[in-house]
Amino acid sequence: MNTSTLSGHPFVHYSGAKLHVEGVALETVARTHGTPLFVYSKAAMLSALAAYQRGFAGRHAQICYAMKANSTLGVLQVFAQAGCGFDIVSGGELARVIAAGGDAGKVIFSGVGKTRAEMHQALEAGIACFNVESEAELAVLNDVAVERGCKAPISIRVNPNVDPKTHPYISTGLKGNKFGVAHERTLATYQRAAQMPGLRIVGIDCHIGSQITDSAPYLDAMDRMLDLVTAIEAAGIHLEHIDLGGGLGIDYNGDTPPPADALWAQLLAKLDARGFGQRKLMIEPGRSLVGNAGVCVTEVLYLKPGEQKNFCIVDAAMNDLPRPAMYQAFHRIVPLNAHPNRSAMLCDVVGPVCESGDWIGRDREITAQAGEYLAVLSAGAYCVSMSSNYNSRPRAAELLVDGDAVHVLRPRESVTSLFAGEQLR
Ligand code: LLP
Known about the structure:
Layout (H helix, E strand, L loop, with lengths): L2 E4 L2 E7 L2 E4 L2 E2 H8 L3 E5 H14 L5 E6 L6 H9 L3 E4 L2 H9 L7 E3 L6 H10 L3 E4 L2 H14 L3 E8 L21 E2 L3 H9 L4 E8 L9 H19 L6 E3 L16 H14 L6 E4 L3 H4 L3 E11 L6 E4 L8 H5 L5 E3 L9 E6 L8 E8 L6 E4 L20 E6 L2 E6 L4 H4 L7
Parallel strand pairs: 5-21, 6-7, 6-14, 7-8, 8-9, 9-10, 10-11, 10-12, 12-13, 13-14, 16-18
Antiparallel strand pairs: 1-2, 2-3, 3-4, 5-15, 15-16, 15-20, 17-20, 18-19, 21-22
Helix pairs in contact: 2-9, 5-6, 8-9
Bound molecules: ligand LLP.
């Protein structure tokens, strides 16, 4: 049988004409579990993680999976069992870490709007570090910790003013973004934090954006961070760790981000050259650990040829796959059954939601007929975690493939569960 993998997706391949994730034929699971259906490869997640682990071999480093990318418990469990910590942005995410068997002691808490209740919850759980994003937040966290009679471990998230050259909605380290403390204010903010009785300074943090496909912005950010570390330590404040955030991109459409181990070889060379090679490192990767480990299988409902445009209407929609509608993002769309001899129709692949913004792919060559299946690739990150019930559409089911084994991580939502908590007058 001929086997061909898809570029950027080492664990998704055609075996003969049929698309597989690891040892599992997608058409078989689509018939059993229905569509839309998310299918993840455990081996793909672990192989993405291994690239970081290779990069950090022999160093003191903690990988904290940024779970906003995909917070399904069974996905968190894979990373928890592999020794990862987690980067969280809400009390809800912390509850998920604990429910998945993750270690709260390896959790770091990012985000510009942490509430007092969330601070209490995280201190109670004993998280590793709060990445504090403003001077106002610093004062409130101090207050909460004093009230509890403890010291909150903190890093200040620095806004290094580096352009990650990515979509404006997902660049976070520029002066005009809401994130972090301005580079110029950082030293003064650390000095203020050092005076607060409820805080224990443990590190420094930055995150410059997402879907970054070049190492240059990381190298710039690292230089700026090390300048700050030098200045902060000269003021007598020791920093145990340096957190460089997440953001490494994946191959959606021929994109060529540096492999994680190659990127870190460059960054570690810089750290070594500047005398920081032994410092503990933290990172917060999300997309690069799960993005290309997942596909979304969808059934073609109707082909609708038109005068100006042809449409291929599928049963997945913007509520399942919000990235095209939100960021004009590109996801490859391939058939579950390859038909090399069929002629293709050039069309927009769209969902059933009542919005013109509900598209999944534009101007694609589609060979599938109604009743056949397509796979939307690179659907492991920021799809289910950003999904909604818009148009009263139940959320899709999620499966984890491990070799030939299939595990249901989340059954399809039932319609009645959507309004189970609502009340009539
Ligand atoms: N750390 C912090 C503080 C973050 O804000 C983020 C992502 C990450 C880590 C993980 O970044 P990653 O390694 O996944 O690039 N919904 C958008 C992406 C939003 C990213 C927000 N922050 C999308 O679908 O492209």
